[in-house]
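Supplementary Methods, section 5.1.

A reviewer requested that the exact input to the structure prediction be made available. We therefore reproduce it here, unchanged from the version used in the analyses.
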Amino acid sequence: MATVTRLFDSHTEALDAVSKLEAAGVSHDKISLVSNNADNWHSGTNGHGEGPLGDRNGDGENDVADGAGKGAATGGLLGAGAGVLAGLGMLAIPGLGPVVAAGWLASTAVGAAAGAAAGGATGGLLGALKEAGHSDEEANVYSEGVRRGGTLVSVKADGDEADRIQTLLDQSRGYDATTRGEAYRQSGWSRFDADAQPYSREQIELERARYR
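The structure derived from this sequence is encoded token-by-token as follows.
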């Protein structure tokens, strides 16, 4: 099974791509979304009287900053409902801060972060992307893309289905790791740093403006 991933500069384009995938018959349990939330575009509750995962008072001040622990509590939420977007929730990923996520990649990222904390392999989103079959280069570019304000859509695909999914995501303005990696390296970037400070809202706005 292959994994097809594309980076979107806006969450609206990514959400539209997910809807198109489901309309095209791609099972929602094969689709995952991980999005930067520095501009607070998503502030929903988890359906249990709490705000963004772990926020029992609903004021947006969640306690998921350490990633794996609280993120693991999202297991029943991610991918729930009629479609993948019904399972959107918030969790924290090392190097990215709070993100909006749903689906298998988010669950894998939480597990990878827990494994790294216990002395295992590379954690967080970077480790999850590698586990999904992406090369080290691709995983670094896609993780950096989310750090810079982007949204990832990743799809597990069987055989010939991969080409169809890739075409749909490309037509929806998704970027592959090669294209965006070249743009990042022009500014001196080399790889994703999970210990770096997450981008501020202002930095993300400037970054997005580069690609408009």
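Residues 104-117 form the longest helix (14 residues). These observations are discussed further in the main text.
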